[in-house]
Amino acid sequence: MTGKKAATLNQRIRADLESRILSGQWEPGFRIPYEHELMEQYGCSRMTVNKVLTALAESGMIERRRRAGSFVARQPPHLEQVALEIPDIAMAVQARGHVYGYQLLERAYRLPREHVAEETALSGSEKLLAIRCLHLADGRPLALEHRLISPVGVPEVLEVNFETTAPGSWLLQNVSWTRAQHRISAWGADEAAATLLQVKPGTACLVIDRLTWRGEQPITCVRQMFLGDAYDLVARFSPGAR
């Protein structure tokens, strides 16, 4: 795929180290291999290794201690627990026996709007990749998506062609994440959304707003508007669960 071909050695090393941390293979307090060990393992320069470790430290995933090395960070107690999964809409549609479709409606590279907190939190004063797209099932509209991705947190995203690949699917397959925040609401489709979803204005829709982080770096925020009669939100829990 385009994104994988464009991935640099720096990005591949970071993804490899992150996967070991997030999978639990390297537990909190585990000492990351020394720089010279990583240089030998990946066949790269000290500068490349240092950039990767610096990025991981800035994201909050590791701690760098002078003369002692780098260690997997111990998670602070206030971190949120993800109560809902982040679904791959394409896979979910196909799993139900339907044909998935995708249309890219708009792609822009722009500055965040200063009055929108989610946008400024995503990249500060840097530009954002803004994508508007439509998800379909059996050729009929299922959901309208507005997504912003931070090139600060995901630099390789600028090399990806989203003409045929949904951004959410690409992110789940290529970018690790550590926590997410969901806000769920019910809306009546306005005229613009109703036109794209091929329904009457005011039709009931389930709206999911999600902000996703990698360590302390927000990487993407998205608003997905699903047709109300085509999407079920299910949460599983047990007595005493938090």
From TrEMBL:
Keyword terms: DNA-binding, Transcription, Transcription regulation
List the InterPro entries. Bact_HTH_transcr_reg, Chorismate_lyase_/UTRA_dom_sf, His_ut_repres, Tscrpt_reg_HTH_GntR, UTRA, WH-like_DNA-bd_sf, WH_DNA-bd_sf
Which SUPFAM superfamilies does its entry note? Chorismate lyase-like (SSF64288), Winged helix' DNA-binding domain (SSF46785)
HTH gntR-type domain ranges (all copies)? 7-75
Annotated signal sequence is: none
Pfam families named in the record: GntR, UTRA
Q: Which CDD domains match?
A: WHTH_GntR (cd07377)
Protein's GO biological process: L-histidine metabolic process; negative regulation of DNA-templated transcription
Which spans are transmembrane here? Answer: none
Highest rank taxon of the organism: Bacteria
One annotated GO molecular function:
DNA binding
Cross-referenced NCBIfam families, in alphabetical order? his_ut_repres
Q: What is this protein called?
A: Histidine utilization repressor
In the record, what lineage is assigned to the organism producing the protein? Bacteria, Pseudomonadati, Pseudomonadota, Gammaproteobacteria, Lysobacterales
